[in-house]
Amino acid sequence: MAKNRNIGLYIQLCVVIYLAAQYGLVSASFNCQRNGVGCVNSGTCNANGTCSCGTDFEGFDCRLRTSLKTPTCDSTCKNGGSCYNNGFCYCSVDYYGTTCEHQRVSVNCTEDSMTVNVKPYDSFTGKIFVYSKRTEDSCTFKNDITVVEGADPTWHGYGLKIQYMNSICGNFNKTSNETMDTFEVKVVTEYNQIMITSIDEISTIICSIPTSGNIPVSSSISEITYGENVYQSTNTVEDTYSPVSLAFLTVDNTALKDNTVQLGDVITLKFTLVQSPTLTSLKLTSCTAKNPTTNDSITLVSNGCKGDDANQITSATANGKPVKEGNSVILKFTAFKFVASNQVAFSCNVKVCVQSDTSCNEQCPDTASIATPTTTPATAVRRKRAVDQEETVTALITVIENSETETITPITDSRSTCPPNNETSQQPHDGTSAIGCFQNKEILTVIVILALMLVMALIVVMVLIVHYFRQKDAKVCDIQPPQEVLRQFTIPRVNI
């Protein structure tokens, strides 16, 4: 930048675009399903990430006691905050501070750097870092805002100063015109350091530095799904011999194609008892999901019931609870991925029972007096089966982010045939191939109908022609001479 820039023209234009990826989005920064976040005062966390509060409590996290609300405060509560207890402010979801004066994502811009503040909720134990720079310590936000250079002294939470020209974590997208230089960087807030979920957050921070003229300060807020880059990986499936089969299903109960799913989509694990002369029922006792590269893991099912970690990957249509359906157990949750890996390895223990054993009848008993299951490792050699035992079922899936599906969509020749009828509902991302297929089918249908009509018309014409000639021949045969003519012609008699 020019060193002789007119100070009078040095007006900082700081824009924070806050983007949050979550299902049932209610606010830009609150979801009670996140790790370390929840509903207080006995509030209930709903599947869409909102709180249902009990009697005499309200607010996005049920922290505000209704009976303590007061109409006025010594200090005016800003940005939609509520006054309570004659002098305190309960801030709206996206603000914090004594008078709710700070946004939970804020930035101070200077001519050569920006200082960013992120204030997560409650007992935050995750990690905040510059996008794609997770392993760089200098690009990780400090949890003591007071030691961050350039930070507002009234800020709280996490902070980081980023130089525009920093080759380590600057990574800025710079654009320039005649009046302004604009610097843009993305910041990721992960609520669990060993896994990435669809309810994590990504913020885009923009600082615009005027080079001439007077330019007003402005800001805006928008939303996007977390995860934009493509990290492709090959797909492999692991399996072992077992009387229990494991199937991965989509939200419409169809088989997961190539064991690949999009981040945030509903996925179903279906454990089914293979037909057996002695075994009659099964029970999912435990299930964990692991990062195959680091062995980080989360518990989905424990002692036959929903594990605590499963709360982070639930939705309105996938509550994370194992449910028995006949000779199967169904487990639904939203797809997630671990940090630095697109693959998720599942290891689940399933108990199989004979008819006389009732321990498999109930998937998640009300009481917790259940012994911890003993895992029976799966081997490649078949063995004589005990009466009641557990089987370990393992499998591997690939979780891709939204933009990744566009890169792996195959390019097909326009002259190729359309998919079968049961595949036509799977419309490609750009929609053009499906439209072409439907148009080709419509044209083919019209041609077939026209051909049938032409054949029918020819048949009708042939029938009419045959009928015409038959009638004509009949009229010729029926012609007889008049009686007067017949009388003039007699056969002479001959006398012998």
From TrEMBL:
PANTHER family: GH04558P (PTHR22907:SF54). It comes from Patella caerulea. Keywords: Cuticle, Disulfide bond, EGF-like domain, Membrane, Signal, Transmembrane, Transmembrane helix. Residues 108-367 form the ZP domain. Residues 69-101 form the EGF-like domain. This is ZP domain-containing protein. It holds the Pfam family Zona_pellucida. The keyword Iron-sulfur does not apply. InterPro entries: CUT_N (IPR056953), Cuticlin (IPR051962), EGF (IPR000742), ZP-C (IPR055355), ZP-C_dom (IPR042235), ZP_dom (IPR001507).
